[in-house]
Design a protein that fits this description.
It is built from twelve helices and nine strands. By secondary structure, it is an alpha/beta fold. Helix 4 packs parallel to helix 5.
Length: 272
């Protein structure tokens, strides 16, 4: 499946999603916003999906908001941008937030492979992923203050899980540019790899070989309980585990282990 601005190729349950505006470092135009949202929502409806790898074609992951958008603001032609902040569809996120938040809300794991630049909105899209693998020399920044703005693409729901509030503030106030290694040291990315896309694909293949129901429930468990109270978190563990036990895919995991063979899982079928 392919569009001009975001390409999707699916093989063995792994969706290889590429931001595809390489001449502009995959900068975020209004059309790019729409294409990313459409890609995420299309994948969310695919029950055969196991895992997503999100990357950018060309020399960088994503440079953030297209410079033309800022020119429009300086010319007092920002009605379209303001409209995105006021447009809501299903769920709490507005249309400016959805290109990042759609990945956090996807029911399967999302791995972002970051190379080159990941600035501003580009970084916030990567933060929507469950796991981020960056090249050691990648450049990452919460860049919005450069343009007199705040980060507003669901960063309140993503960055809080990765670092202390004082570090988040410092990065937001200063727009300090971090290397991939610096970002890893701060917890902004999960780990570094010389070839982040290759590393992301290797991890995706490992995840795709596990019980897809358990993988989806594992993501749901942490997404819904990480900031919950004690009773809610413990109840969620019990509810999801009870639903999993004795199901076809869970029994296949047991059989494959005892028979010393690779499991042959069916599609994910469970709903909590």
């Amino acid at each position: 499946m392919m569009s001009e601005l975001v390409t999707i190729e699916i093989s063995q349950g792994i969706a290889d999603v590429r931001l595809n505006r390489p001449d502009k470092y995959n900068a975020l135009s209004p059309q790019m916003f729409s294409a990313i949202i459409e890609a995420g929502e299309t994948l969310a409806a695919d029950d055969s999906l196991r895992v997503v790898v999100l990357s950018g074609n060309g020399r960088g992951f994503c440079a953030g908001l297209d410079m033309g958008n800022f020119q429009g603001m300086s010319d007092q032609k920002s009605d379209q941008s303001a409209g995105n902040l006021q447009t809501f569809n299903d769920g709490p996120a507005n249309n400016a937030q959805r290109p990042a938040y759609v990945w956090k809300r996807l029911p399967v794991p999302v791995i972002a492979a970051i190379h080159g630049v990941s600035y501003g909105g580009g970084l916030q899209i990567a933060l929507g992923a469950d796991i981020r693998i960056a090249a050691p020399d990648a450049k990452l920044s919460v860049m919005e203050i450069k343009w007199g703005l705040i980060p507003d693409m669901s960063i309140t729901q993503t960055l809080r899980d990765l670092m202390p509030i004082d570090v988040a503030k410092e990065l937001t106030f200063s727009r300090r540019i971090l290397s991939g290694q610096d970002a890893s040291d701060l917890g902004l990315v999960t780990r570094v790899a010389k070839d982040p896309l290759e590393a992301a694909m290797a991890l995706a293949k490992e995840i795709a070989g596990k019980n897809p129901d358990a993988i989806r429930f594992g993501k749901q468990l942490f997404e819904e309980s990480w900031h919950a109270d004690e009773a809610t978190g413990l109840a969620m563990e019990s509810k999801l585990q009870t639903t999993l036990i004795g199901t076809e895919n869970q029994l296949e995991a047991i059989k494959a282990n005892f028979e010393n063979r690779s499991p042959a899982f069916g599609p994910a079928t469970l709903k909590a």
